[in-house]
Amino acid sequence: MGYLDDVTLGGPVDTVASDVAEIAKVGGNVGLILNYSKCELLAHPGVTVNDKRLQSFQRVLPSDATLLGAPLFYGPVLGQIVATTSLWR
Questions:
Q1: DSSP states of 38-80 as a string?
Q2: For the whole prediction, is pTM greater than 0.85?
Q3: pLDDT per residue over 53-67, tens digit each?
Q4: What is the DSSP-derived secondary structure letter of residue 26?
C-alpha cells in the first residue's frame, strides 16, 4: 500500500525483504533512494530478521505502531491519543 512517498509492505520477512530490494532497485533506476533512517520494521520481538536492509530499519512493536499517525493496534499509542483528545473525555 502506498500514498505519495509513504509505502507500507506486509508479509513474511523474506517477502518484505525481496519487495524492499525491488523498490530500492527500481527507485534507483529513476533517481530515487530509500531514506533508511525513516524506514520502520513492525515485528514482534521474537521475529528473526537476517536481511541487512531490514536490520537497518527502526524496529517497532505492534503496540507502538502507527500508520499515517493512526494507531494500528490497541496499546500505549492508542491510550495516549484517547487520553489527550477532548472528544474521548
A1: G-EEE--TT-----HHHHTSEEE-GGG-EETTEESSSSHHHHH
A2: no
A3: 999 999 999 888 888
A4: H
